[in-house]
Design brief:
30% of the residues lie in helices and 23% in strands. By secondary structure, the chain is of the alpha/beta class. The chain folds into four domains: 102 residues, 3-Layer(aba) Sandwich (GIY-YIG endonuclease); 184 residues, P-loop containing nucleotide triphosphate hydrolases (Rossmann fold); 187 residues, P-loop containing nucleotide triphosphate hydrolases (Rossmann fold), CATH 3.40.50.300; 87 residues, Ribosomal protein S10 (Alpha-Beta Plaits), CATH 3.30.70. The strands form six sheets. Strands 9-10-8-11-12-7-13 form a seven-stranded parallel sheet, sandwiched between helices. The chain has a six-stranded mixed sheet with strand order 5-2-1-4-3-6. The longest helix is centred in the last third of the chain and has 18 residues.
Length: 663
């Protein structure tokens, strides 16, 4: 009997295609296998999602061949891809293809690697004896795993309260029951110690994914997981698609992190995908954070998630004292403006004299963050982006941090030809240079994307810091989370209010989270700790409450504002971005689209059209329309109908982002 297969492709087309099975293919047709299909005048890779014994089109074309001996997707993963399609405005094929390594997308069936990943020395460790709070959490989650019951646990634990040990011990229970588990971390390079702890506890049963791996190494790890050799997967957002069998638990560490949101299609949020995958598997999810996202904490307060609070640090160590330094006063009283306040400089001198260590955090790289003319006020901007060029002193060049455009610093102002150019603002490079002047004997390293571009650079610096071959690390968000060094007694936060000036309803939340997270790196040993936060707005509630380690106070203040303005968690947002190299074209398209949406979506709240906060990016002018809705899947379905047949105009591109993390 002739078979017919329904096939999806990675094209942004919301439909399947039917093909006839000739019977001469290399392997029999099965759901979840890759196939070569004739498509238009060429050939493409597709994925079988359904098998039928009758044609649904008049003259279905025949398959070229079936690539796989056994399916690469389970039916569970195909269903999950369909859920992503319905919730994140992408095609079924785009969602499915996001789940596999690049080699499989290109039709490969095997790969070898000649380059060995650097083997690290892993010292086996034993479980710690949990304290009362940890023990209760482990028992509740273990019961959930044993009963094959889906539940979401929001683990709100202050920094240093032993969240990682809970992850390890619940994973141990999962392994003892013969099951598997996934732990998501925001970014492998930012959380090396979390990975190290899993490897030291579970050895070669752990598979690790990260963005800097060779494609061949990624493929080999994927195969180890699929074959059941690795039963625990640790990795960033894409690790949620690992082909594990019989999952017992899903863990999302630092669940508030924006990096769990994919910026390109399919624009899924890994935390929500983890919850959906766990629901399908009847397994629990742990969402862990010292600063949970407002959306998750609100759901926990409403009873949708089980809220678990860890209020004590391990061994009852105290949270570090936080001191706010008002930089307005500093600039008024100090001769010669510097980035490092006298309070922080003095604290670092004491710290180094006692043979202790420090972390200095500033979420801006480069030396001077902008260059402007004192005579006409012109700021030198990137020609392709609506962004000031940043001066990097080491390379003596201006760099755009959005499109990476580089140019030599001008001798005169491009607008008025005046020769009075001022280099203003401070990045990590400038902070490092100032620290060298203040502390000439201190051993200082810098961690940002300029210095950490080579493979293994993170590990090299962190290992040197661990062995106390370095006294101070100056860094961007790379040092803000996941690091646990007992000798770090001092943390300095430069420009704590940098995020507050962004036109984004989450700017207060991001500021609070960053200060709390980076402050949590101090005082994790027996020596105690102190945090000095430099700010121009010490009275802002996000900074003030972060200094008091008061998450609940911040949540109550912020949730009230979100309720009044009707922003998440009270609605779902959809951001529609139109872009074009010709500004006039994108403005016309945005205005036409707004009229169409008002007609097609009556009663739905809309903001815009308006220029994006970053109105020009990589040569494209950008305009946004924000749609607010109660039901995520419902609004995606309505938008598919509303946007069908919309004529954007020549050279205009459109992106639909459901639950965007930035405006």
């Amino acid at each position: 009997m002739t078979q017919y297969v329904e096939v999806i492709t990675n094209l942004p087309i919301n439909r399947t295609f039917q093909y006839k099975v000739k019977g001469t293919e290399a392997y029999p047709a099965e759901i979840g296998k890759r196939v070569h299909i004739p498509f238009r005048t060429g050939k493409r890779i597709g994925y079988i999602v359904k098998i039928e014994d009758k044609p649904v089109v008049e003259f279905p074309r025949a398959l070229i061949d079936i690539i796989d001996e056994s399916p690469i997707f389970t039916e569970e993963m195909i269903r999950l891809a369909e859920w992503i399609k319905d919730n994140y405005y992408c095609s079924w094929g785009e969602a499915l293809e996001a789940m596999i390594p690049s080699a499989l997308k290109r039709g490969k069936t095997s790969m070898t690697t000649r380059i060995k990943e650097e083997s690290r020395e892993i010292v086996p460790t034993d479980p710690h004896i949990p304290n009362k709070e940890q023990k209760k959490v482990i028992e509740d989650i273990t019961k959930c795993i044993a009963e094959k019951r889906h539940e979401v646990f929001l683990l709100h634990g202050i920094t240093g309260s032993g969240k990682t040990e809970i992850y390890l011990q619940t994973m141990e229970k999962v392994m003892a029951m013969g099951k598997t588990g996934i732990i998501l971390v925001p970014e492998i390079s930012l959380t090396p110690q979390t990975v190290e702890r899993f490897e030291s506890r579970f050895g070669d049963k752990v598979a690790v994914f990260h963005s800097r791996m060779l494609q061949s190494a990624r493929f080999i790890e994927w195969k180890r997981i699929k074959d059941g050799e690795a039963r625990i997967v640790v990795g960033p957002r894409s690790a949620i698609f690992s082909p594990i069998k019989d999952p017992g638990i899903f863990i999302v560490d630092e669940e508030h992190e924006p990096s769990y949101k994919q910026e390109d299609s399919p624009r899924y949020h890994a935390r929500d995908v983890a919850i959906e995958r766990a629901r399908n598997a009847n397994a629990p999810v742990i969402l862990g954070s010292a600063t949970p996202s407002l959306e998750s904490y609100y759901k926990a307060k409403q009873g949708q998630y089980s809220l678990v609070e860890l209020t004590q640090r391990i061994e009852e160590k105290l949270l570090p004292k936080v001191k706010l330094v008002d930089m307005r006063m500093e600039f008024e009283t100090k001769v010669g403006k510097t980035v490092i306040s006298e309070v922080l400089a003095e604290a670092l001198r004491k710290d180094i004299s006692k043979k202790q260590q420090a972390l200095i955090f500033l979420n801006r790289r480069g030396f001077s963050t902008f260059v402007n003319c004192r005579e006409c006020g012109c700021t030198i901007k990137c020609h392709k982006c609506d962004s000031p060029m940043v001066f990097h002193k080491d390379n003596q060049e201006l760099i755009c941090h959005y499109c990476n455009r580089r140019e030599a610093p001008p001798k005169v102002c491009p607008d008025c030809n005046g020769d009075n150019l001022m280099y203003r603002g401070a990045g990590t490079e400038k902070v490092e240079k100032e620290l060298v002047k203040i502390l000439p004997t201190a051993r200082i390293a810098r961690m940002d994307s300029d210095t950490m571009s080579k493979r293994g650079a993170h590990e090299k610096v962190l290992n040197a810091f661990k062995k106390h071959e370095l006294d101070i690390i100056v860094g961007t968000q790379m040092i803000a989370k996941g690091l646990d060094f007992p000798k770090v007694t001092q943390v300095g936060v430069i420009s704590a209010d940098a995020n507050l000036n962004l036109p984004d309803f989450r700017s207060g939340e991001r500021t609070f989270n960053l200060i709390t997270q980076v402050a949590g790196r101090a005082g994790r040993g027996d020596l105690g700790g102190e945090v000095i936060v430099q700010t121009f707005t010490p009275e802002h509630y996000a900074i003030n409450l972060a200094a008091k380690h008061d998450y609940n106070g911040f949540y109550l203040r912020e949730i009230q504002s979100r309720r009044e303005l009707m922003f998440p968690p009270f609605v779902n947002l959809v951001k529609i971005t139109l872009r074009s190299r010709i500004e006039e074209n994108v403005i016309k398209a945005a205005e036409r689209l707004a009229v169409k949406l008002e007609l097609k979506l009556p009663g739905v709240s809309m903001l815009g059209p308006a220029p994006s906060p970053m109105s020009k990016l990589r040569g494209y002018y950008r305009w946004n329309i924000l749609v607010k809705a109660d039901d995520r899947a419902g609004i995606v379905k309505e938008l598919r109908v509303a946007l069908k047949g919309f004529r954007k105009g020549s050279g205009v591109l459109m992106a639909v982002d459901v639950d965007p993390m930035s405006m």
